[in-house]
Amino acid sequence: MASIYDFTVTAQDGTEKCLADYKGKVLLVVNTATGCGFTPQYVGLQEMYDKYRDQGFEILDFPCNQFGQQAPGSDDEIHEFCVGRFSMTFPQFSKIDVNGKDESPLYTWLKSQKGGLGGKKIKWNFTKFLVDRDGQVVARFAPTKDPKDIAPSVEELL
User: Domains of the chain, with CATH numbers?
Assistant: First the structure.
């Protein structure tokens, strides 16, 4: 795969979504969970989305239940929680695996582009990948990295 645009993923509503639909946009790809200590980062993510969306910024939210079973529930239940609790408006996709034999091909590719500290494995929820307007991964951020601290990197790409 040459860029993120080569992938098709399953949207939260079960439909297939071609990531080529996001061509020309700056993307932040995040694996999330509703019961994680980092779940309050949804507030900062939404603030970033509100601030930069009109400049060509999108956040792609991929719930993942691989870390401490912290994303239980159906795709609809997860989505309702995020919208109700955090007023989330950015795109959310179907729950995926980010490591292991059933990992999403998207995440296999993301990790091959930016392995990050400790190797290529995703260590926890809220690992973030920043993708430029050409569909290339330019940075990987640890779960502990607050969205407000990622904003300068987003601004550089916009």
Answer: 4-157 (3.40.30.10)
